[in-house]
Write the C-alpha cells for this entry.
Amino acid sequence: TREAKLDLVKKHIKPYPDFPSKGILFRDICPILKDPAALTAVIDLFEEHVRQMQPQVELIVGLDARGFLFGPLLAQRLGVGFVLIRKKGKLPGPTVSVAYTLEYGQAEVEMQEDAVAPGQKVLLIDDLLATGGTLWAACELLKKNKAEVLGCMVVIELKDLHGSERVESTVFSLVQY
Ligand code: PRP
Ligand code: ADE
C-alpha cells in the first residue's frame, strides 16, 4: 500500500545534526539508495503521482546532484526523457544560467540551451526542498528556455523553511518535516 511504501521511505532517511554547518539538521537519503525496496517505493510513489497529472509530463528535469539519483529511474518508468540541470561550469555547448541562495550557501545552476523544446511540458525533480532557492532557479531556467513547468517533485520537504512559497510551481513531496 501507499502507507507501507511511505513508511519504508521514512525509515531510510537519516538525520545528521550540525551538517554541513552548525544548526543545520541534514536529512540524508543515502540509506534509501542502499535498500532496493526503499528506492523502488520512492519511484513507485513518484510514478503514481505523475501518472494522474493532467496534462501529461513529457520530460523529467533533474537537479544536480541528488536529483540525478531519482530522476532517470522515474523517467525510464514513464518512458520519457531526462534532462540535467547542473551546477555552473559542467555542461558543454551553449548554456543558460541562473544564480540563487540556498540553506547553507550560494550557487548558480545551468542548463544546455537546446535541452528543452519551447512549450515542452516538464516536471522538475530533486531529493529535497529546503529554502526553495534551487527549485526557484530551476524554474527560472526553464522559463528562459520557454518550457512549461507542470510541477516539482521531491522526496523530502522541510516545511519550516517555507520553500514551496518561493517556488512558483506546485511542489509535491513524499515526506515532510
Ligand atoms: C541540496 C538539495 C537540494 C537543495 C535544496 O543540494 O539536494 O538540491 O540543496 O535546498 P534549497 O531548497 O534551499 O535550494 P546541494 O546544493 O547541497 O547540492 P548537492 O545535491 O550537489 O549535494
Ligand atoms: N539541502 C538543503 N538543506 C538540506 C538538509 N537540511 N538536509 C539535506 N539536504 C539539504
